[in-house]
Write a structure and sequence with these properties.
By secondary structure, the chain is α+β, with helices and mostly antiparallel strands. It is built from 14 helices and 33 strands. The termini are far apart. The structure holds guanosine-5'-diphosphate. The site of guanosine-5'-diphosphate has 16 residues, from helix 1. Monomer.
Length: about 600
């Protein structure tokens, strides 16, 4: 049975190509907003961090009505994939809107999601946006999209994609670049005609796949997913089928569907709809919400295991709390436990110390996003150096291996391969993706990726794109040589800063080991960079509270000074010095006891 009045689509766009503006315009033009309702709030990208990094971390839902059809629009995560989120989100929809800037063309960051969408046989519609740009080159951009689709393995039907030319900013759309109307009708028509309506059986026993989790202080945990079969009703008893196949009885609280940017409370919803449910406090991603008496599981969706662990430690320094919020261990604990309600590949464990929590995730970027978000919320904390999670398999020490995909300019290929070779990576594949760009794929120990992103960005002058997925556990590959992790310390009158992980790495700054004495003015740095290490000396009394994700800017804001190697040496006592090389100074680590 077809549920004709629903379409479920996902939006794929490179950051700044106009996704938010386009969805805003769709909302306005479809009359989903009443005339007196202002779209002040921007639709997607609510997380500042997402914009700065140019990736979308959280997936969000919006819905617009066109004529008598409801179009559910799901945002897709960018190239960073933490535990199979991209695939889960795409499984909620039947088609995708690929938004491409009419001048810039398709960007490598969207390839990962696009490839998944094509593999899942979703129907693509291409929107060439910003057609008003004077430098627009729509015909070439469409050709580039076609080439990309071919390269990513699109089938014949997908290659026959419809194209809409639009100016989201000016509210224009059309089937040809020179035949635009002051309406998005052409886009809505194409969506209704090309994207199949969900093919569903509303009378069959309920099945819904828990795709995303959300959390709201008032209603608690929210389960989001598409109803695959049957209906959900408010207050109804259901069976929750766990990933191991066991059953749990539970009761649905409220049922919400989406309208515009809002969730609306409804008595029931039918198969084909994307809904949000409350009351299912024990539900987890990948589980099936099923009929109480006829429970049948949907195919399990893989959730990648955490491979990297770090300690999050309460900042007990006397300066803590001067500018930010003083964080007690209770607060930190609460915050972390709330995070795991929705962050599926994250684990939190207690340690012997009440002030320290062991947090495990899918890699440095995954953990660093959490750390930066927490810092922005005002949490002051110290973090330990990340370590990979080893396992013993058949009496053998095994380590996590990641499958790494690097899209890089051909000119930096040699250096990147060499860098990864040192990190025990094994090259698996290499292809030209354009005349100047290469895609190189590797199997690499997760530990080899620690600190790699910064070097990678430096070597590719910011043009490289990397993404990795968990590959499996393999026997330990041996020590990775030459990774001196000396700690650089400089003195003045400030306090140590732990920086945001990501920005710190971009500058080659590493992590404070737990228990490292926090000196006034200390900044830790990594000494294996191919350049003079700069010792950063803070002049202010208190610099722990750097909110900026950009270390350069943070230093400037905090009026910190950057010293040369020679100048820095003046601040260092002889007994602390381990080694001086033309590239670095290594200092003895000092411990509290
Ligand atoms: P997102 O990052 O993909 O969500 O992109 P936004 O919707 O935030 O748009 C990025 C920038 O492009 C903003 O400055 C928009 O005003 C601008 N923009 C969006 N659509 C258009 C368009 O059709 N034409 C032009 N010239 N600019 C646009």
């Amino acid at each position: 049975m077809k549920s004709m009045n629903i379409r479920n689509i996902a939006i794929i766009a490179h950051v700044d190509h106009g996704k938010t503006t386009l969805v805003d315009a769709m909302l306005r033009q479809s009359g989903t907003f009443r005339a007196n309702q202002n779209v002040v709030e921007r639709v997607m990208d609510s997380n500042d961090l997402e914009r700065e990094r140019g990736i979308t971390i959280l997936s969000k839902n919006t819905a617009v009505n066109w004529l008598d059809t409801k179009i559910n629009i799901v945002d897709t995560p960018g190239h960073a994939d933490f535990g199979g989120e991209v695939e889960r989100v795409l499984k909620m929809v039947d088609g995708v809107l690929l938004i491409v800037d009419s001048f810039e063309g398709p960007m490598p960051q969207t390839r990962f999601v696009l490839r998944k969408a094509l593999e899942l046989k979703l129907v693509p519609i291409v929107v060439i946006n910003k057609i008003d740009r004077p430098d627009a080159r729509p015909a070439e951009v469409v050709d580039e999209v076609l080439d990309l689709f071919i390269e990513l393995g699109a089938d014949d039907e997908q290659l026959d994609f419809p194209v809409i030319y639009a100016s989201a900013r000016d509210g224009l759309a059309g089937m040809e670049p020179d035949q635009l109307t002051h309406s998005f009708e052409p886009l809505f028509k194409v969506v209704l005609e090309h994207i199949p309506a969900p093919s569903v059986d509303v009378e069959a026993p309920l099945q819904l796949l828990v795709t995303t989790l959300d959390y709201d202080d008032y209603v608690g945990k929210i389960v989001i997913g598409r109803i695959v079969r049957g209906k959900v009703r408010q207050g109804e008893s259901i069976t929750l089928i766990k990933r191991d196949g066991s059953f749990e009885r539970a009761k649905i609280g409220k049922v919400y569907t989406y309208e515009g940017l809002k969730r609306i409370d409804v008595p029931e919803a039918e198969a084909g709809e994307i809904v949000a449910l409350t009351g299912l406090t024990t539900a987890n991603i990948g589980e099936t919400v099923a009929d109480a008496s006829n429970p049948e599981a949907l195919p399990v969706i893989e959730v990648d295991e955490p491979t990297l662990t770090m300690n999050f430690i309460v900042n007990n320094s006397p300066f803590a709390g001067l500018e930010g919020e003083f964080v007690t261990s209770r607060k930190l604990r609460e915050r972390l436990y709330k995070e795991i309600e929705t962050n599926v590949s994250l684990r939190v464990e207690e340690t012997d110390s009440a002030d320290s929590f062991k947090v495990s995730g899918r890699g440095e970027l995954h953990l660093s996003i959490l750390i930066e978000n927490m810092r922005r919320e005002g949490y002051e904390l110290q973090v330990s150096k990340p370590e990979v999670i080893y396992k013993t398999v058949d009496g053998e020490k095994c380590e996590p291996i990641e499958y790494l995909i690097c899209d890089i300019p051909e000119t930096s290929m040699g250096t990147v391969i060499e860098l990864l070779g040192k990190r025990k990576a094994e090259m698996v594949n290499m292809t030209h993706i354009s005349q100047t760009q290469m895609r190189v794929e590797f199997k690499v120990p997760a530990r080899g990726l620690i600190g790699f992103r910064g070097d990678f960005l430096t070597e590719t002058r910011g043009e490289g794109i990397m993404s990795h997925v968990f590959h499996g556990y393999e026997p330990f590959k041996g020590e990775i040589p030459g990774r001196s992790r000396g700690v650089l310390i400089a003195f003045e009158t400030g306090e140590a800063t732990t920086y945001g992980l990501h920005s710190a790495q971009e500058r080659g700054i590493t992590f404070i080991e737990p228990g490292t004495k926090v000196y006034e003015g200390m900044i830790v740095g990594e000494s294996n960079r191919e350049q003079d290490i700069e010792v950063n000396v803070a002049r202010k009394k208190h610099v722990t509270n750097m909110r900026s994700s950009n270390a350069e800017e943070a230093l400037r804001l905090e009026k910190a000074k950057i010293f040369t190697l020679e100048q820095a040496l003046e601040y260092i006592d002889d007994d602390e010095l381990v080694e001086i090389t033309p590239k670095s100074i290594r200092l003895r680590k000092k411990y509290l006891d």
